[in-house]
Input
Amino acid sequence: MPGLVSVKTPPASTPVRIFPPENSQCEGSRNESPRVQRRMASPSPSPSPSTSISRVRPSPDRGSGKKKSTPEKTVIDESSLDNPDLGPFLLKMARDTIASGDSPSKALDFAIRAARSFERCAGSEPSLDLAMCLHVVAAIHCSLGRFEEAVPFLERAIRVPDLEKGPDHSLAMFSGYMQLGDTHSMLGQLDKSISAYESGLKIQTEALGESDPRVAETCRYLAEVHVQALQFDEAENLCTKTLEIHGEHSEPASLEEAADRRLMALICEAKGDYEAALEHLVLASMVMIANGQDNEVAAIDVSIGDIYLSLCRFDEAVFSYQKALTVFKSTKGDNHPSAASVFIRLADLYYKTGKLRESKSYCENALRIYAKPLPGSTPEEIANGLTEISAIYEAVNEPGEALKLLQKAMKSLEDIPAHRSTITGIEAQMGVMLYMVGRYGEARASFESVVAKLRPSGERKTAFFGIVLNQMGLACLQLYKIDEAAELFEEARGILEQEYGPYHLDTLGVYSNLAATYDAMGRVEDAIEILEYILKVREEKLGTANPEVDDEKRRLAELLKQAGRVRNRKGKSLENLLGSNSNPQGMKKEGTKRWSGFGFKT
Output
């Protein structure tokens, strides 16, 4: 029985920002873990997991260089498509055209004609040749950056095989689902991407059994995608299964086990289980040392330093970072982006320990490297580094300098699907910076651009999207667009309730903003009801002596005095309270629009 692996597609890939670097194929390598951004550089903010390994993605562009000339496009009579020898001939011509580096458009024409020939010759019978040809057509579309056009061909290719006809048909369907998942991922449609990968994994498991090493590779690949989607419980389950399979079939201290443990460390760190993450990283480092992988050991040392930093074990973190920096400088050069990434971590560490002069010095060292990047440095690598440095400048209250760095990061990226996720994260961070420096119109425009990119994709239901809506609502308030702000806060409230629950601090912050906005619109009773609920929750969670509780009490007292009421200690259930507030048209408005007497939560 053949192993179930996905069909390869043309190379030359660049990274996607929640997530992925370069030189891949439309199927992507399935043996590397994603790096989750340390700051709000991704459409899904998260804790700062530490790993330097990245999962790759297909690229919309191909390498440049001189092309070999080929004959003019062959004119083929439609009636000849019934010839069973024509399909294989045209498919071979398409592959030869790709291999020669000639026009992808010409290769696409050959592949489409081959698919039509295979379809006509197969009739109603499932044809593996047709499925394979459709995979090639989709791969060429991906190489041209036409990911939306590739999707219908892949969906059609999945419908062709018949699982009852044996392992070859299972292989074809598995390949189609995995390639479809990669394509959706390039479009930023993580929900659809995960669904396709899960379907592929199910088919592979049924064909090979649950303990096959090839199933382990697919499990790890899917776990990486769940990490990118911030679905850490699902990722942990899959990674645990991968470790179990590799433990059963691989030699002790294998490279596969090391890769699994690095991914598991990433997941544990994201979930706040730093001790478990540290244990996995130490075991992975031992494996890499035994196999003589010095650069990989250095990358793991960086991740170990991140864990120590999270645990406030600063001296040990500095030792790990400096150890990794020494290796990177000796093996890759003083000006390699890997060295810059360590400088950024050291800058962050010294900022957190109050040594601002040292922090700024390391930031400047990293900026010198990014100003003159070495050949082979990827635009996304530079953009991510500039974004992380901007976060440090923001933390030391230099929003102007932080904004300049974000603008440089934006300029370093092309507006193509492979970079869209990174661009979205940078735009969101720019919106925050613009808001901080009082440029509210530009901040609103930046957030509006982010929302427009996220709505058509699977990110529209994520917590990140809810947070962006909240920030956009705050910018609208500064521009006196109160009705628009209320709509944005209401939408953000619904998303964060779903993602975080009604008691999360971010959700309560949106409730507070919504209450203040209702007050500004003259809907005092609605504002009071929401604020009473917020105060009740904060008293239960934080205690009555907490400063935030005192602040909410003051706000509520002002509104109650204005309405001539006293506080309702009983409180409504959240379901009844927000259910009634979800229909502004049915609400009685009290008075004209005015500014609220209390503040807003960012």
User: Anything to note?
Assistant: The CA atoms of residues 415 and 423 lie 8 Å apart. Residues 1-75, 569-599 have pLDDT under 50 and may be disordered.
